């Protein structure tokens, strides 16, 4: 849906609020790859100052979901097949290392939290509430980052999660992909409870690949 057709939010928004709404619009496909983000239109949409819109652009640029182009301004970034593969190669490395650095003394606590989150995720999928499902899926994964004993690694995991958010969320629109994601989550929780760290690492890495395949198929990037 073009940005001009997206429902307006309350006026006077700050940069971080604008950033989060635009990040969500990109993740859910309301703003498409190569779609222009016109500063004046966004100022009107959010009732915001130019400064806050530009600051939101800075935050979006930092996670790599927009780009600034000469004579075209700002647009949603369209990644090539090679860039997508490179992004997911790094994500795979971070996922594996994140499991190795999990606080094993708190695995039961983490598994309990993830069980509650995945139950919410399952219900949202059953009811066809895609935005609620995206929120629950985000929370499932970012909660795991909180249990990484290396703060720098956790920050990197979060950054690359945000960079891949459009890829991840796009896949959840497809029923087959979302149901596979749900089952993967239950398998991840089971591996945690069993203290099977090798299995947990394997699941955590393989889990991130189907959304990439779905995204590349949708945008003809094979």
Automatic annotation (TrEMBL):
<dbReference type="Pfam" id="PF00392">
    <property type="entry name" value="GntR"/>
</dbReference>
<dbReference type="InterPro" id="IPR000524">
    <property type="entry name" value="Tscrpt_reg_HTH_GntR"/>
</dbReference>
<dbReference type="InterPro" id="IPR011711">
    <property type="entry name" value="GntR_C"/>
</dbReference>
<dbReference type="GO" id="GO:0003677">
    <property type="term" value="F:DNA binding"/>
</dbReference>
<feature type="domain" description="HTH gntR-type">
    <location>
        <begin position="12"/>
        <end position="79"/>
    </location>
</feature>
<protein>
    <submittedName>
        <fullName>DNA-binding GntR family transcriptional regulator</fullName>
    </submittedName>
</protein>
<keyword id="KW-0804">Transcription</keyword>
<keyword id="KW-0238">DNA-binding</keyword>
<dbReference type="InterPro" id="IPR036388">
    <property type="entry name" value="WH-like_DNA-bd_sf"/>
</dbReference>
<dbReference type="Pfam" id="PF07729">
    <property type="entry name" value="FCD"/>
</dbReference>
<dbReference type="InterPro" id="IPR008920">
    <property type="entry name" value="TF_FadR/GntR_C"/>
</dbReference>
<keyword id="KW-0805">Transcription regulation</keyword>
<dbReference type="InterPro" id="IPR036390">
    <property type="entry name" value="WH_DNA-bd_sf"/>
</dbReference>
